[in-house]
Amino acid sequence: MPKWAMVIDLDKCTGCGDCIAACKLENNIAIVSPEEANDGRVMFWMDMITIYEGEYPNIRVKRFPKPCFHCDNPPCTKVCPVNATYKNEEGLIGQIYHRCIGCRYCMVACPYTAKVFNWLEPEWPDEFKNCFNPDVSLRMMGVVEKCSFCAHRLLKVKEDADSDEREILDNEYLPACSESCPANAIDFGDLENKESRVYNLSRSSRAYREMEDLGTEPKVIYLQKRE
Amino acid sequence: MEIKRREFLKLLGGVSGAVAIGTYGCNQVIDVPERLIELAKKGLGIETWKNTICGQCPAGCGIKVRLVDDIPVYIKGNPLYPVNQGGMCPSGHSALEVLFNPDRIKEPLKRIGIPGSNKWEPLSWEEALQKIADFLIKQRRNNKSHQVAFLDGSEQNSLMSEHIAQFMKAYGSPNYYQYPSVKNDSVPYLLLQGTQQIPSYDFLNTKYVLSFGSNFLEEGYSPIYYTKLYTHLKELTEKKRTRFVQIDSRMSLTAINADRWIPIRPGTYGALALGVAYILIREELYDNEFVSKHTFGFEDWVDNEGYTHLGFKSNVIGNYYPEQVSKITGVPGETILEIARELGNNKPSLVLGDQGSADNTNGTYSQMAIHSLNALLGNFGKEGGLYFTDQPPLAELPRVQEDELAVKGNSQPPIGCTYNTSFKIMDFSINSFTKNILSDNPYPVSVLFLYKGNPLFNALNHHDLAEALKKIPLVISFDSFLTETSEYADIILPDHTFLEKWDEYSNIPSVGFNHVGIQQPVIEPLFDTRNSANILIELGDKIGGTVSGSLPFENFEKEIKFRVEKIYRSGEGAIISEGLKGDWLEYLQQRGWQVGRYNSFDEFWKLITKHGGWWNPIKKEKGIKNIFKTSSGKFEFYSQLLKEWTDELVLMKGNDSHQNRELVLSELNINARGDQVYLPHYEAVPVDEHMPLYLTTYKLLTNRNGQSSNQPMMQEMFGYTSHQSWNTWAEIHPATAKDYGISNEDYIWVESSTGSIKLKAIVNPVVMPNVVAIPFGLGHTSFGRYAKGHGVNPNSVMKNLYDSLNGNPALQATKITISLAT
Amino acid sequence: MPKKIQYENELDAPLFRPIYETGKGFYITVGILMLIILWALIMYITQIWFGLGVTGMNQTITWGFYIINFVFFIGISHAGTLISAILRLSRAEWRRPITRMAEVITAIVLAIGGLHPILDLGRPDRVLNIFTSGRLQSPLLWDVTSITAYFTASTVYLYLPMIPDIAKLRDKGGKLTWFYSFLSWGWQGTEHQKKVLNRAISILMIMVIPIAISVHTVISYIFSMTLQPGWHSTIFGPYFVVGAIFSGIAVLLILMIVSRKVFHLEDYLKKIHFQYLSTLLLIMALLWFYFTFSEFLTGIFGSEPHEMEIIHYKFTGPYALFFWGMLLLNFIIPVIILSIKRFKTITGILIASIAVVIGMWLERLNIVVPSLANPRMELPIGIYIPSLVEWSLFLGGIAVFILGFVLFSKFFPLISIWEIEEGREEGIKEVEERVHSYLPGKETGSK
Question: What is the pTM of this model?
Answer without folding.
Answer: 0.89
